[in-house]
Amino acid sequence: MEKSALQKARSVYKPKLPVVMTGAVKAVEGKDTNSVADQEEIKALFPNTYGLPEIQFEKDSAPAKGAAPINVGVILSGGQAPGGHNVISGLFDGIKKVNRESRLYGFLMGPGGFVDHQYMELTADIIDQFRNTGGFDIIGSGRTKLETKAQFDKGLEILKKLNIQALVIIGGDDSNTNAAILAEYYKQINAGVQVIGCPKTIDGDLKNDVIETSFGFDTATKVYSEVIGNIQRDCNSSKKYWHFIKLMGRSASHIALECALQCQPNVCIISEEVEAKKMTLNDIVDYIADVVAARAADGKNFGTVLVPEGLIEFIPAMKALIAELNDLLATNAEEFSHVDPSNRIEWVASRLSDINKEIFTSLPEGVANQLCLDRDPHGNVQVSLIETEKLLGHMVARRLDLLKANGRFVGKFATLFHFFGYEGRCADPSNFDADYCYALGFNAACLIKSGLTGYMSSVRGLTKPSVQWTTGGIPITMMMNMERRHGQMKPVIQKALVDLNGKPFKKFAASRERWAKNTEFIYPGPIQYFGPAEVCDQPSLTLKYEHE
């Protein structure tokens, strides 16, 4: 595999493992756990893996000798995130430390490869090509959901054939929910297979007190912030465009908030605040238009607006509409598939409640059609396909025309639109993510060696130097609640939303009026891999502020 000069230099980078993991470790049990909500329902669904204790690893002064080799399978599930290769590298090195004869098998193209018995053995020669690189191309990823007994039994066949004692699923909240279900089933039937999860998502919504951040968030937001900074530099140079920039984050606004803290744009919409304040689409448009008009009054006909990908679902009226749409299209999928595309809006409108029909038919035709597009594997509208940034830009333009007619807007308003998503998902990991991901994988090997199942790899204390991080695991059921999916209540990991009382949001809220009026852009520049720690090894500002 050909490599760039940077990749060659990165290939020799040695992730800085937490000191506790540099020798033999022992698992120390903490307090028993409960799910974050719906305790009785979750307990009934997971009788064998509910209520397990938290685990923390400590140095073992009297380790047992002569551990047997362990065969492990690994799956990359869902969308890509920087650092996935380092999780696999850490897992590989961790099981080889247990016994040099341990073997690692990668299932190809996600959970589908597990079910269909498509796999490859990951040897040192293969692993060494992918250390500290971005992407998931070592084995590929996919979005097949592991949720049926038939899938579990089919997967168990290949696990038994390869003598695999443990399966590591690297994924986001839904993938780790599937890991918990699989762990419960294998425990129930005494399959002798452990299941361990690793927290992956650039969206940043898979976290809690003991999962401080999901991997990939740090790198992705730094990539986006570099490009936003470049746009802001261009914006401040030409002084004639308003840039509307949509950022990934369907279920939470962590990416938009982090990029705002790094770049200081004129406007950043936080979906969670929109919902909390029960703002309408017109409220958001009026807010942006007022900022544009105020800057124009100072002769500044330019600026930047950051928009979270999932904003539309957080507007209360739109959220209710989408919820009804999801249920409608889930229960009538077959009939809807035969409706002529030119008649879909009319077909949907005729089956909605009166209040949602009124909202739906008032939307621009393009947005209404986008809301009717095929759902994602979890039954949700694919909000990334809704051009929210263009919708807002066009609505702001109409609002400014009204202000101009009333003499309240005297400037010019020219727009450019951007959506940053895939640009950040496969970047070479930052030093933070390289270290964090390697530690997550190595830690997963320790959880396996300790005989645990139904746990998520947890590395904490992330604002400290990586050698001081603490490691362990938390039961996946601890993070779960019941939510409506495909028209039914299902157990899922609870998504972590932006905390409006948290320090990161308060830092943003305290400055946004000043950023709106003035031009205080920051230009973060590209990720730095070599140089002083204060330049190269810093975590995200979100993580820093949360732990101040």
What do you see in this structure?
By secondary structure, this protein is α/β, with parallel strands linked by helices. A 9-stranded mixed β-sheet has the order 1-2-13-12-7-6-3-4-5, with helices on both faces. A 4-stranded parallel β-sheet has the order 9-10-8-11, sandwiched between helices. The model has no long low-confidence stretch (mean pLDDT 95). The relative contact order is 0.18. It has 23 helices and 15 strands. Helix 9 (254-263) packs across helix 21, helix 11 (281-297) crosses helix 18 and helix 13 packs across helix 16 (354-362). It folds into 2 domains: 17-28 and 69-216 and 429-476, 3-Layer(aba) Sandwich (Rossmann fold); 219-424 and 501-528, Phosphofructokinase domain (Rossmann fold, 3-Layer(aba) Sandwich). It has helices at 5-11, 39-45, 84-98, 111-116, 124-130, 149-161, 173-188, 217-238, 254-263, 271-276, 281-297, 311-314, 316-331, 333-337, 344-349, 354-362, 365-371, 388-405, 422-425, 431-449, 503-517, 533-536, 541-546, and strands at 25-32, 53-59, 71-76, 103-107, 119-121, 166-171, 194-199, 242-247, 267-268, 303-308, 415-420, 455-460, 470-475, 480-485, 488-493. It is globular and about 85 Å long. The longest helix has 22 residues, at 217-238. It is an enzyme of class 2 (transferase). Its EC number is 2.7.1.90. Keywords: Transferase. This is Diphosphate--fructose-6-phosphate 1-phosphotransferase. It comes from Muribaculum caecicola.
